[in-house]
């Protein structure tokens, strides 16, 4: 072979190798393996399954798999509680459900408007998607900004994810879903509209993000006064299992109490700092009590909470001082 032939063939060989490598790296099978949430439904009661998210913040590593989702299998159909953080998550959730039961999905409930709870909606039939009117309004108002932020935080896990807003309106009260009776409990505090769902047959309470377990609560839309009132209502429910929005399920009310104590401390600390005239930097530097130091993401969430909540506490303190 002449040198001229070698020189002309080498670029073609390199191009062919590059095309082959691209096909290998970006084939559907390879992409599926690279973006696998490894969703594993855990049965916690008869017909009730939970898929546990990590006690982490959003990242390129976890793809937003930080939320608990679940589903309830009834005699004639399946109810899904929240759909996760991306189209991929929703698709994998639906596949995981199909491995448990061949029954149709008859209702999908978005418990509130935070993106890790509704961005998997695309994977489900549009006529099954439901939420309260306030949650639907929140998705409409803030959904596009949430979506942009999730792409920034989770990268290619979000590929092809778009907003699929619910259109069926939910209200407090009992509903039949797939032959299971569900009690819908409309509350607020974590956001302006937080829906808890009680499966009557199993006594399972899906408490959404009103309850965290082993992880510091998030507060970007929080009213702590309303949140504490919501926890009082949840405390009165005679449930047998509780599924928090983040953290492990339980069979007692300890997750409610943990969330309550943390919020009470956070509220007191912020009010106290404002009344003492501390500036934002001084507040951010305050230590977290030992009781809460073991909560996942507590330092990060405390600082976020100060950023969200402290300006209003300062205004309240100044207003109170002016009335004296």
UniProtKB/TrEMBL annotation:
The keyword Nuclease does not apply. Keywords: Hydrolase, Signal. It comes from the Bacteria. One of its GO terms (biological process) is antibiotic catabolic process. Residues 1-32 form the signal peptide. InterPro entries: Metallo-B-lactamas, NDM-1-like, RibonucZ/Hydroxyglut_hydro, SoxH-rel_PQQ_1. One of its GO terms (molecular function) is hydrolase activity. Residues 66-246 form the Metallo-beta-lactamase domain. Coiled coil: none annotated. Transmembrane segments: none annotated. The keyword Signal applies. Belongs to the metallo-beta-lactamase superfamily. Class-B beta-lactamase family. PANTHER family: ACYL-COENZYME A THIOESTERASE MBLAC2 (PTHR42951:SF4), METALLO-BETA-LACTAMASE DOMAIN-CONTAINING (PTHR42951). This is MBL fold metallo-hydrolase. It comes from Parazoarcus communis. The lineage of its organism: Bacteria, Pseudomonadati, Pseudomonadota, Betaproteobacteria, Rhodocyclales.
């Amino acid at each position: 072979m002449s040198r001229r032939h070698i020189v002309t063939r080498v670029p073609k060989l390199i191009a062919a190798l590059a095309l082959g490598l691209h096909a290998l790296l970006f084939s559907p099978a390879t992409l599926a393996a690279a973006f696998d949430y490894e969703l594993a439904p855990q049965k916690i009661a008869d017909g009730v399954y939970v898929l546990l998210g990590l006690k982490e913040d959003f990242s390129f590593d976890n793809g937003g798999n930080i939320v608990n989702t679940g589903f309830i299998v009834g005699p004639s159909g399946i109810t899904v509680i929240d759909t996760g953080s991306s189209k991929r998550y929703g698709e994998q959730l639906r596949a995981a459900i199909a491995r448990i039961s061949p029954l149709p999905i008859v209702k999908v409930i978005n418990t509130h408007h935070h993106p890790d709870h509704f961005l998997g909606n695309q994977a489900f039939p549009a006529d099954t998607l439901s939420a309260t009117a306030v949650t639907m309004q929140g998705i409409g108002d803030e959904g596009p900004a949430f979506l942009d932020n999730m792409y920034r935080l989770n990268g290619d896990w979000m590929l092809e994810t778009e907003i699929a807003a619910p259109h069926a309106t939910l209200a407090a009260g009992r509903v039949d879903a797939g032959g299971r009776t569900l009690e819908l409990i409309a509350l607020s505090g974590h956001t302006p509209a937080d829906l808890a769902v009680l499966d009557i047959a199993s006594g399972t309470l899906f408490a959404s993000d009103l309850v965290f377990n082993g992880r510091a609560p998030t507060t970007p839309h929080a009213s702590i006064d309303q949140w504490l009132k919501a926890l009082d209502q949840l405390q009165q429910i005679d449930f047998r299992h509780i599924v928090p929005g983040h953290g492990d399920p339980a069979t007692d009310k300890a997750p409610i109490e943990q969330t309550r104590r943390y919020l009470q401390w956070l509220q007191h600390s912020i009010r106290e700092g404002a009344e003492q005239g501390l500036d934002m930097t001084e507040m951010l530097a305050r230590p977290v009590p030992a009781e809460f130091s073991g909560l996942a993401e507590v330092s990060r969430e405390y600082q976020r909470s100060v950023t969200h909540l402290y300006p209003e506490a300062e205004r309240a303190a100044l207003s109170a001082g002016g009335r004296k």
